[in-house]
Input
Amino acid sequence: MSRFDEELEEQLGQLVRDVAWGVYEPAPLTEVILADHGGRVLHIPAVRDRVVERAVLDAVTPFVDPVLGSTSYAYRPGLGVEDAVLEVAKLRDEGHRWVLRTDIDDCFPSIPVDLARRQLGALVDDSELLAVVDLLLARP
Output
């Protein structure tokens, strides 16, 4: 098996054809346990699947981003930690005195995937794109 970048143009061309022809099959996720993070488990996609995931993200972001909450800063184009800090400072300057910082332990496995997928389908009217999303969600 060759590394993806060793034959980049050929790999990308084949990936585009596979997706376009409806024969794309994502590889199983690779499980990695981070011992220095309390045994945190990561499930890592193959490089070719990350390329597809990025393309899907780029395609759905214009539909999804407008419906996200105004105080949601994570994983949003053009927004980040600095923006969140500036918003907190603005609220402080407006007289607000309390800040609640939260983090959901083991967040991603707790997401109701079926509900999230239905909501995505309500926002994105592209059956071929949603079929690729379904393949990615169904990976072992």
Remarks:
- Residues 40 and 107 are 12 Å apart (CA to CA).
